[in-house]
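DM from R.C. (forwarded with permission)

"hey, sorry to bug you on a friday — could you get me a structure for this? deadline for the figure draft is monday and I only need the backbone to look sensible"
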Amino acid sequence: MENIGRLDLNLLLLLDALYADMNLSAAARRLQISQPTASTNLLKLREFFGDQLFIRTGRGMRPTPFAESIAPAIRNCLEILSRDVLRKKQFVPETSERVLRITTSDVGVMIFIPPLLEAIRVMAPHVNVRVVPVPHDELEGALEQNVVDLAVGYFPDLTGSNILTQTLFDHTFACLVSSRNSSITDSLSLQQFLAADHIVINEQGRSQELFERRLRELGLTRRVLLHLPHFMSVPQLIARSNMIATVPRSLGVWYQDSGIRIFPPPIEVPVIQLRQFWHRRMNDDAVVLWLRRLMAELLIGRDPSLAFSSDYGLVGQP
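My reply, with the result:
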């Protein structure tokens, strides 16, 4: 092993080419080097191995017994290097059966997954998508270990030095009110908002924190009757009560025909900046690269909740 460090890989390429062509000029052309360079490299090979390797004869260059004995092993080594080391693995979406793994919130599933599935059906018909639940404090490790390919959504604490991000689009909040609530009809005033009972979602993605922080900044308080860990049961609970929930707008859009009305919040609220996240270790991985480019093409500057709500309009919004 100690002699390997003195051996230039280019010399092995010459030995392999000479064995294939039995002609120094042809080997030089194959390797796209000059004949003097090929001659110099052949001298280095002879010195390294202590053998003439190839002898000029009337029928061209002929290998010595030693050259014949090592040529198949050298060919095998070069093929392994080419196949397993030097050739970057490609992702062919048309034929791949890969499972793409994404972590996002339950609202994120409604926002991001439909356009992604629609594109995959056309571009990668055999690829499947799996939404993987990952605790927020384990997400950086999951990305590093490739447990998930991408995290997509609002993850304000995912800020490690090896985490790379790309902003997709900004999303807004909306207030959900039951269609049967006779006290709130055409608009939602701040007084009505503060007087009502509320549902608050303590969801892992924590977009709700933006709204709660804004209320604290304004010194506003309201009665929170119900805390929930997830968004999905909110529309049904709102439709059958006089409670109010302030949620990402897409949730209201999905359920606007299910006994609820949608109002803009009665205060100015920061937008939810939605991004995709991946680990620096996977930055050049063919699958992750393809997936994040597809997500960027589908979502940068495009809020899908606007596309699936052509009749969408916030009640009380000019």
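R.C.: lifesaver. Residues 173-263 form a domain with the D-Maltodextrin-Binding Protein; domain 2 fold (CATH 3.40.190.10).
me: no worries. The chain has three domains: 4-86, 99-170+272-307, 173-263.
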